[in-house]
Amino acid sequence: MFDFHGDVLIEDEFLRDGLQNESRLFSIDEKLGFLAALEAAGLRRIQVGSFVHPKRVPQMADTDALFERIEPQPGIVYTALVLNRAGLERALAVGVKHLSISVSASETHSRKNTNKSVDEARAAIVPTIETALGAGVAVRAGIQSALGCGFEGRVDPGTVVAIARSFSALGVSEINIADTAGLANPRQVFDLCTRLRGEIDPAVQLSLHLHDTRGLGLANMVAGLQAGVRIFDAALGGLGGCPFVPGATGNIATEDAAFACEQMGLDTGIDWQALRAPVAAAEALLERTLPARTSHVPPPPWDRTEEKVT
């Protein structure tokens, strides 16, 4: 049942998905402070923000300026989300080399998120992806609400498969399956990921964006691991949520995901204990406790560093 091993890539999305639903606007200096903490803890891919309309998501209005101030560290990928050609042009202008470019599998969510139907959004995103690839940008094509919609309920897996096939044909390096509303269950995750693996180019990697809205986030991650997925999105402290989906609360926590992988013998390169301090800093700024587990309980006895009595 647990026949998996090796390396797992966790992309932290605190600075984008984590902050986009918050009423408190974080300054660029505050964002850079959290970025430095994530870098120091061993994160290898960090989603810094999104190039979306500032009036719709004001928390992301400074993404351009933030990228201009980043001092890239070796071995770390700095990525962002774009939803259209205008966002891509902004990303290219500040030299972003890795992008997530997404559409929704849900009609209602698509209209609320982009003011387009699913078919319209798919048609519009193709030239955007092609332009990004032509500019030498690594593209992760995403499918939002792929495992359920907060407005419509169940989403037809056939729709997800059709979108994934079209993305695969474009030559993207990765396809991200997003449980935007946190409605997925482990069996559903396993079945969809297994089906997709047989439908897309074997060279294209699958990744999962999981929310812990109903407490199944880490269980869904394990189901993804069983289906062969080795890339997962998470957010420091378990912060996050979609502004356009009611009740879509936080992502799986980066530190919880890294801890779980470590306990199962999987290597993420992340020092999950080093994330306690930035979680505490975020809680102080937001004036509330974040949902991450491992930041609020002692490490297991075998992970504690204790001075020897001489």
Question: Overview of this structure, please?
Answer:
It is a single chain. The chain has 310 residues and is α/β, with parallel strands linked by helices. It has one domain: Aldolase class I (TIM Barrel, Alpha-Beta Barrel), CATH 3.20.20. It is 37% helix and 16% strand. Strands 2-3-4-5-6-7-8-9 form an eight-stranded parallel beta barrel, surrounded by eight helices. Helix 8 packs parallel to helix 9. The longest helix is centred in the middle third of the chain and has 17 residues. The protein is globular and about 50 Å long. The N and C termini lie far apart (45 Å). The mean pLDDT is 93.
Query: In one word, what is the shape?
Result: globular
State the fourth-level CATH superfamily: Aldolase class I
CATH architecture: Alpha-Beta Barrel
User: What structural category do the secondary elements indicate?
Assistant: alpha/beta
Mean pLDDT: 93
CATH topology: TIM Barrel
- Give the % helix: 25-40%
Total tally of structural domains: 1
Strand order of the largest sheet: 2-3-4-5-6-7-8-9
| Major sheet | 8 strands, parallel, barrel
Order of helices and strands: EEHHEHEHEHHEHEHEHEHEH
Number of contiguous helices: 11
Q: Would you spell out the secondary-structure blueprint of this structure?
A:
Layout: E1 6-7, E2 9-12, H1 14-18, H2 28-40, E3 45-51, H3 63-69, E4 77-82, H4 85-93, E5 98-104, H5 107-114, H6 118-134, E6 138-144, H7 157-170, E7 174-178, H8 186-197, E8 205-209, H9 217-226, E9 231-234, H10 254-263, E10 266-267, H11 276-286
Parallel strand pairs: 1-10, 2-3, 2-9, 3-4, 4-5, 5-6, 6-7, 7-8, 8-9
Helix pairs in contact: 8-9
